Amino acid sequence: MNEYRVKGLSCGNCTLGLEHQIKKLEHGETATLSYNSGKLKLDPRVPMDRVEQILKTDNAYIDWSQAQSQTPPPPLEHAHSDHDHSGHNHSAGNHTHSHSHDHAHDHNHEHGNSRIIKLLIVAAVFYGAAVLAGDQVNEIFQISMYVVAIILSGYSTFIRGLKNLAALRFNIDTLMTIALTGAVAIGEWKEATLVALLFGINELLEGLGMEKARRSMETLLQVAPKEAIRLEEGVETVVPIASLRVGDLVVVKPGEKIPSDGLVEDGRSSVNEAAITGESLPVEKAVGELVFGGSINNEGLLNIRIEKAYKDSSLATILHLVEEAQETKTPTELFINKFARYYTPIIMIISALVILIPPLLMGGDWSKWLYQGLAVLIVGCPCALILSSPIAIVAGITRNARNGILVKGGVFLEQLGKIDTLAFDKTGTLTKGEPHVEETVVYDEQRFLMVAGSIEKSSSHPLAKAIMKKVEAEQIQLVSLDEIQTMSGQGIVAWILGKQYWLGNEKSMSHLIIPSQVQGQIEALKEKGLTLVLLADHERILGMFGIADEIREESQLVIKQLHRAGIRRTVMLTGDHQKTAEKVASIIGVSSFYGNLLPEDKVSKIQELSQQGPVAMIGDGINDAPALATAQLGIAMGKGTDSAIETADIVLMQDHLGKLPEAISVAKKVNRIVRFNITFALGLKIIALLLTIPGWLTLWFAILSDMGATIFVTLVSLTVLINNRKH
Hints:
Elements: E1 2-7, H1 12-23, E2 32-34, E3 39-42, H2 48-56, E4 61-62, H3 99-110, H4 112-133, H5 139-166, H6 172-185, H7 189-221, E5 227-232, E6 235-240, E7 249-252, E8 262-266, E9 269-272, H8 274-277, E10 283-285, E11 290-291, E12 296-297, E13 302-306, H9 314-327, H10 331-362, H11 366-379, H12 383-386, H13 390-402, E14 405-407, H14 410-416, E15 421-425, H15 426-430, E16 431-442, H16 448-456, H17 462-473, E17 483-487, E18 491-496, E19 499-504, H18 516-527, E20 531-536, E21 541-551, H19 555-564, E22 569-573, H20 578-588, E23 592-594, H21 599-610, E24 615-619, H22 625-630, E25 633-637, H23 642-647, E26 650-652, H24 660-690, H25 699-718
Parallel strand pairs: 15-22, 15-24, 22-23, 24-25, 25-26
Antiparallel strand pairs: 1-3, 1-4, 2-3, 5-6, 5-7, 7-13, 8-11, 8-13, 9-10, 9-12, 14-26, 16-21, 17-18, 18-19, 19-20, 20-21
């Protein structure tokens, strides 16, 4: 599929119509045109000249300057007179864009809105002058001023409407054209002009509203670096980031963006990872540490060994998924679009009945009921209804992406706002996944930490690292080992200064008879859910470490915030034994917990929870992937495994849960706004239609109710982008 950027789309309903026409072309069955993102995806065999002709009917066009290496068709005669194809070289295998081509597009359409605004202002002046003149000027002169105002503000709508009418396509342009023609036919010049003027203003504001949401998304997508400085044999060369390969060494100077994911090979600096994680605080990076493409190097010079080609980097993955997310339609959007397809013809039938039934069956005045029927046509515009959802969805996805939360589609954003149960994996999600010494029981102050540290100092085992942190914190002087032996699954035997020591679990202490007092303390630590490491010589136990997985600092607060945000149940699922699960659960405050679970047990538990309401699962490891896929919504920690991130519907790009409550609040706000917009748009239309019964509906009220509703739902949807500081 080829992908193109389309500009000039006037409204969501019109975009659906254009997509429908493109699908009728040869090989066009799979074509998609997204109003949200302004993207057109086509089979390469679809004739592009025909596509451009279809787009032209709505004053839309393909921006060839942003097309992905696609060659534009031969020049079409179209409305944008300064669109210049002379900058293209169409020779085989060679395609270039000249500056003049890009500039022609940019210049023409950058000032398109200002041109429309000027025309609408002039039209408003003519309309105002005609109204104020009243009976003081010649009627023909007054009508001429109305005609000028109509042409300036509604000419393009009228032409599109006539074309649609000829093709029996019924959309907003068709409705407005019939209404304008009818109003003029019965001599309602003032109201016909107002309809044209307000419709022109509405189209402008509707376009600006969607453009605001798109531009907010595009700003997010522009964080990708364009070039990198590659270092080869001591020579620095500026290259496009697309040319970087795994293993390349790049130089990143202060203030520059890191081109792709890699490891620091030389240098030290703080790095701003906000583009990836949403965290504004800089992170210190030194030799051997991982850095993300798109991060900004703050002060030091860094030499980075590229670990991933840019297309596979974290940033490229995020940008690709965010772009795809705007193009997915939620169930609400799909329903509204389907409803709108039948809604417009139904409104035309109602309008015809309003015009015909009162005069024919009740002796009503033809001109009065023709007027009422025309007002019904204007009320029937589905724009406000169709815009109820997409702007809010795009704004919600963008808002969360700014915070480092990647929602892979509008449907998942909608689901996130409906979730009432959150299931958490424990290790690496609610806890850090890094053991730390929580308690020590010491019987020999002089030897305990010195011997334990001397034995564990060269070990890479997670429990050994926890012990070494404790030893280093106490600044204990260590000694060399005479000899060391590992006992699989039990611990270590070592000789220090000619004396033998045992370090490990209870099984490694089989050479001793453990006194009841010491055994009591062992049992007490086990009751607390701690993992034990004991140290003994050949005579007695010297002390013991109680080790636990360290709970994340934010976990307790996050759980409280989630409950306040409307999450009914928080559930912890873990493979650890029940005592450990109980301890962690009691500290962080989850509603319930389940221990001793294998990956398949987690899946069963998710299925069980799902019977009581919609469930989201949050995890970070390979063992979490099945549960993530089973839940209605899978949420992965961004620094977790690739399989978890791939399976998940939402990715937290930080290594913590701190931003999750705000993401849920944003999703709930989007859902509230969509519901409000739909209710408001439909409610206003029902009220307007009810006014036709006593014959009170006027073109003024019809146009204000419809266009006002469209503008209002657009502005309400954009409030999603406003950052509420209380979060």
